[in-house]
Structures are given as structure tokens and as C-alpha cells.
Design a protein that fits this description.
alpha/beta; Rossmann fold; eight-stranded mixed beta sheet; globular; disordered N terminus
């Protein structure tokens, strides 16, 4: 029994060590910063800038909105755990060699996420994200026609919400396990979207994605939808294996 127990512990320890290594690497590649607006309101965020960044060139910007587990005041949780999958997907060397781009990962405080308890109304934090984007556009050489937003779970709802608040700002959105406000579908229809959801999601009903995608399509918008059969809420590892996601996203322009 002792031998079996040790054998079971080996892969577990490998996963823990591997996850820790990736997390530490993420901390190095995404610089911790604090945005402060004219009213003195602050927003913590992490910023990735390509190694060969050239101020004479224009770069796309990917905005990543974390899930509920990323809330806090440590400027760290938003890039850890499940949130790390998409962040690594966008910032890894292979992606950057094909699609050099900046990535920003803001962090909302524990008591306030990207959307209110109704899951559709944008919060003050989401307004600060908009202000942060404008500030980054002033500080870096960002292509205003290639702003992209992506998020998972709470961040998936936030993705739909920020697009509906600023319908002419983003070239495309990628939402995992989220949903949107059907009453604002006319403001969503102009932005290409790709939504993902697990069929057996018990945290966020799959109907939230099905319904908003159907509404966008009915309004004449471009909405792709991928539903993973038998999958639960944790679909991040599946999404980053989608072979056409990156090429589709970075091909979108205003």
C-alpha cells in the first residue's frame, strides 16, 4: 500500500511543481503595475510586452478578464490557476512569433468583479478597465484597429459587457463560460465573437452562451460557438488547443 501511495503522489507532485514553475515564469514575463485615473481610483494589472517591442511598429492589444478566483489585491491571482491557460496561450513564444502583441490582465478587488450580481450589468471596475486601455494606448504603440478582449467565467460575462458598453472599440471577443445582456444585442452584433462552453457546466449554465450567441446571430452579427460535450466548467485546457482560434482572432480588424 505504501508503494502505491507513493506512486500516486509522483504525478501529483509533478503537476504541482510544473504549475509552480509556469506561475513563476508568468510573474517574470508579466510586469506588475498600478493604473490610477484623474479621480484617484486605482486598478491593479499585469502587462506583457513583446521582447522585441519596437515603438515604431503597431501592435495588437489583448485584454484578459479573469474569472472569480482571480479577484484580490495581490496583483497575482488574475494570472494564476485556470487564468493562466489563456494568458500562456497568448504570450508563449510560438504565439508571439506569429502574432506579436501586448497583453494586459487587470485585477478586480474581492468585493467587486466585472459585472454586478445580475451577471450582465458592468461594474465600476469594468469602467476602469476601459480607462486603462486608453492609458496604454497613450503609452505604447498599439494598433487601435486590433484591440481584442477575452475572459473566462466572470471574465466571460465581462467580455460581453465591455463590448456592449463600447461597441466600436474591439475588433473581436473571446468568451469562455459566460453570457451577455440580450437587451443590448444590437450593440454586440457589430463585433465578431467566439464563445465557448461546457455542456455540463454547473457553475454557469450552458444556456447563457447558447442564448446570447443565438441572439447575436439573429441580429445579424458574427458569433462562433463551440460547445464541449460532457465537459464541465473547467474548459480552459480545451480552448487553448483550438487550432484556428489564434488565426481567427488576430485576423479581425475594425
Amino acid at each position: 500500500m505504501m508503494i502505491k501511495s507513493r506512486l500516486y503522489l509522483v504525478p501529483l507532485l509533478v503537476l504541482i511543481v510544473s504549475g509552480t514553475c509556469f506561475g513563476q515564469e508568468r510573474e517574470k514575463t508579466l510586469t506588475a503595475k498600478v493604473f490610477k485615473n484623474a479621480q484617484g481610483e486605482t486598478l491593479l494589472y499585469r502587462l506583457f510586452v513583446p521582447n522585441n517591442y519596437d515603438g515604431k511598429k503597431k501592435y495588437p492589444l489583448v485584454v484578459y478578464l479573469h474569472g472569480g478566483g482571480g479577484r484580490g489585491t495581490d496583483n497575482l491571482k488574475q494570472i494564476q490557476g485556470g487564468n493562466g491557460y489563456l494568458i500562456d496561450f497568448f504570450t508563449q513564444a510560438e504565439t508571439q512569433s506569429r502574432y506579436p502583441s501586448l497583453l494586459v490582465a487587470p485585477q478586480s478587488p474581492m468585493q467587486e468583479g466585472w459585472i454586478e450580481y445580475d451577471s450582465i450589468t458592468p461594474t465600476r471596475q469594468l469602467r476602469l478597465v476601459f480607462e486603462l486601455i486608453r492609458d496604454l494606448q497613450r503609452s505604447y504603440s498599439i494598433d487601435s484597429s486590433r484591440l481584442y478582449v477575452s475572459g473566462q467565467s466572470m471574465g466571460g460575462f465581462g467580455t460581453f459587457a465591455i463590448i456592449s458598453e463600447h461597441p466600436n472599440m474591439f475588433a473581436a471577443g473571446v468568451a469562455l463560460c459566460g453570457g451577455g445582456d440580450e437587451s443590448k444585442v444590437a450593440r454586440l452584433a457589430g463585433t465578431p465573437m467566439w464563445a465557448f462552453h461546457g455542456e455540463k457546466d454547473e457553475a454557469v449554465s450552458v444556456e447563457r452562451s447558447r442564448t446570447i450567441v443565438a441572439a447575436i446571430r439573429k441580429a445579424g452579427g458574427q458569433a462562433r460557438y463551440t460547445e464541449y460535450a460532457e465537459a464541465d466548467h473547467l474548459i480552459w485546457s480545451k480552448v487553448v488547443k483550438e487550432p484556428h482560434l489564434l488565426s481567427w482572432l488576430f485576423a479581425q480588424r475594425l
